[in-house]
Structures are given as structure tokens and as C-alpha cells.
Specification:
The protein has 277 residues and is of the alpha+beta class. Helices cover 36% and strands 22% of the residues. The chain has one domain (2-268). Helix 1 (2-12) runs antiparallel to helix 2 (43-63). Strand 3 (77-82) and strand 4 (89-96) form a beta hairpin. Strands 1-2-3-4-5-8-10-9 form an eight-stranded mixed sheet. A two-stranded antiparallel sheet has the order 6-7. The protein starts with a helix and ends in a 6-residue tail after the last helix.
Amino acid sequence: MLVASILNELEAHPRALDAQSDRSTDHAGDGSIHIFDDPANDQIKNLHLWQGMADVGGSLFAAAKPVIPARLLKESVQELLLSTARLVVMGEYRLRPPDDYFVKIGSPIPRPANPTGPDACGIELSLMFCRGYPQAFPGREPVRSNSHLTIEFSAWGRRERLALLHLVADHRRLVERLLEVPGLQVTTATGVAQSKGERAGAAFECLSRYAEVESDDENHISIFKEFPADATEQELLTALVPLSILYDACYGYCKPRKAKGRLFAYAASLAGKIGAS
């Protein structure tokens, strides 16, 4: 499977982030994908990695088209990021608001498009190709997890955090149905709301607890699910579809001219089992 081959290649030959170069290419007619790589790297050798990540993202969003509107890609910047740092995340296909969104709200454009900008990019939807890493358990020798793909929605910024919380307050039942996906995990910087996704509904319970927190100095929350390298397309869609809907609905709340009714367009899908196999 393509995901497994990308993970194997990245594990063996990790490449690039912290980019000074910006190349773009059209993918599937949905707009340009911005590629960030260090000019010192062999960019020709990396081309198949970029193309592989773009293919995975493109094929998943194509499969989700019956549910996800075309505006999801048209309204967003698509970025491919590769990293040489000794981090878990080696490669990333990311959607985030376009540069003019940050200009309109008076915030700096984020890295790596703006090398001096912040890491926080408001809201994002990411497919993260992750290396294996050691896990420690009490009374046991550390074991190494396998390389995996993580699908993640995150809100990182005061404006975007409040937008997410307002979305939850206005559409509580719809968001609850949206997050009824076994295996969804939630992390925050507050320590008050954490979920390892042991059961369906745990992510929404965690999000509800987070909404009760008066302040979060980091203004950051992530909702994600990890998949093994051999996960099928249908398995990946069980997380990509609901997190894409959450991204789209939250982006409506973030806009200077708010579009608060986006979640209603998904009501029919939410009445059934989203991303069911």
C-alpha cells in the first residue's frame, strides 16, 4: 500500500523541513500544493515522496467527495512538509487557511510559508506520516511502536479556539454525532481534557470538558486518530470524513464574515454512521 511505502522510505531516508524554498504544483484540479524543502537537499530524489503524499491525500479527499464539498480544498492552502529533525512526524500533508485569512485578521502568516512566522496556523487538517517511537510501560521494558499515519484536526490560536468552542455550543448534538468515532484521541495543553480514544464518544466528552476551561495559555487542542501503515482507504475515511467536516464547520466560524450554518449541510450524513465501513 502507498502509505506503507512512504513510511518505509521516510524511515530509511528522512528529508527536509524548515524550508527556504517554495515550489507548487497542481493536484487533481483542486488548487496548488505548496512544497517545502531545504534547498540543500536532493529535491529530485524527494520528488517521489512529495508525489506519494499528495497522491494519498488526493485519493482520500476524492473518495470523500460524496460528503465533503469542493470548498474544503478550494478555501485552503495545501502544504507538503518533510522533516529531517528527530521527531515523530516525518512528513505531512496539511490543509490550513490561506495567507489572506491571516492578513484579514491581523495575524502573521505561519511557518514555513513565512520563515519568521509562528508555528500556529489557526486551524489545520493534517495527514501525518509518523515514525515509530519507544513507548514506556510501568514495570516493563520500553517497546517500539510501528510507523503509522495520523489524521488530525487542530485549533491553535485564541481566535480559532474560541471559534471551535462557539461551534460546539451552537451545534452540540451535531458535533457529538460527528465525534462518535472509536479511537479518536484528544490532547490539550491544559491537562484537564485528555482522551486516548478507548471508546466511541470519549472524544466529545473530552471536548466538552475542555469547553469548561476558562483559559488555555497555549490556545491549542488536537483531535486525531492513528492508523497502522496497512490501514485501508475505508478505515482512513472513518477519521478523515468527520475531521474534515469539523475543519470546514470551524473554518466557517473563524472567517471575518462568519458562516455559522455549514454544519447543517452535513445533517443528513450525521443522521447515519459517518465513514462507516
